[in-house]
Amino acid sequence: MGMPISIEIVGSTASKDLFDLVYDYFTYVDNTYSTYKSDSEISRINRGLPRQQWSAEMKEVLAMCEKTKEETGGYFNIEHSGQLDPSGLVKGWAIQQAAELLYKRGVKDFYIEAGGDIQVRGHNAQSKPWQVGIRNPFRRQEVIKTIQIHTEGVATSGTYIRGQHIYNPHHPDSPITDIASLTVIGPNIYEADRFATAAYAMGKKGIVFIENLKGFEAYMVDNHKQATLTSGFERYLAT
Amino acid sequence: MKKIALSLFVLLTFVIYSLQQRHENAPLVIAPLPKTSSQASSSASSSSSQPTSSGSSSSQTTATYKDGSYTGSVADAFYGNIQVRVTVSGGKITDVAFLQYPNDRSNSIFINQQAMPLLKQEAIQAQTNHVDIISGATDTSMAFNQSLAAALTQAI
């Protein structure tokens, strides 16, 4: 993890401690679930920490990962080379939890974005639905689609890892994947993220998986710069 | 009167013919059928490790089926379990029923569909409208590239 996080809270009630609340929470999540931190709980588990010493929350998170694995026919799989890496679910879950923290404190209009995954609530500063751009996976400064949402979560998968495959180390900018990116819109970011992770692993079939998932829409970009949309995706388009 | 009788006869023949055709063309899916006549129904709960594929098994063409109802073992189709019950009547398969079918999972629903849905496609195009937030996966891969570069410098 250790990814950049951005938060916007609309309105004059936004105070420093609200932002601190969210950032502190993400620091906690990173310290617990990051496989890049040798002292995190997940790293210690990967080094053999006995199950009795696992935290209750960790057990819950790993159980959610197992459930997601079942729901996606095994395409969501946190185990790679005998090590566990739950980041494909934790990222969305953590944003969701952070959003709940703000919501419980009465914050009505905000967004939280972490590593390209977004949870929105309410309206933007112009009292309109939040305008979310989908990044061009081939030109990072460019937006190729704009959607507008009120309460949904948006997750884009497009990492260098697809299932068990790691990209060619001689060409680190050319990952071995069928598709360049897959953006999923779901009822909340936890759901959008876990299914985006699984669907990305399915390659071109991922978009069909999302098509058949009630309450989710997706926008897939393949390596030929061709996009495929699920049949209900266009209802989210900005007018 | 004769004309009506004749038409009815032709119609009836046609109906019988088409019914027969339907039976012969009935897709036989999954589960190997018992060749022996001893078991009326065998419901085993063990699942095989290989996903059984739909289609014909070569034993069909030479076996003679005894009338009765046969339940196959539960087979693991990867996306869920499949179990069929076949009814044989008059030496022919007259019914195939699925006792278990992996339709409780979204992915297997996709597999079950006869045809892929036709989804809209378009060439991607730069958009210039104002956005509040951007969704993209580059951050992770950028972080990885950084991490990889850092690791590789140690490997020199």
Structure explained in plain terms:
The complex is a heterodimer of chains A (239) and B (156). The two termini of chain A are 35 Å apart. The longest helix of chain A is centred in the N-terminal third of the chain and has 18 residues. Chain A is 32% helix and 25% strand. Chain A has one domain: ApbE-like domains (T-fold). By secondary structure, chain A is α+β, with helices and mostly antiparallel strands. In chain A, a hairpin with a 3-residue loop joins strand 10 and strand 11. With 156 residues, chain B is of the alpha+beta class. The longest helix of chain B has 24 residues. Chain B is built from three helices and six strands. Chain B is 31% helix and 19% strand. In chain B, a hairpin with a 4-residue loop joins strand 2 and strand 3. Chain B has a domain of 79 residues. About 38% of the residues of chain B have low confidence. The interface between A and B is large, with 65 and 39 residues. Strand 6 of chain A pairs parallel with strand 6 of chain B.
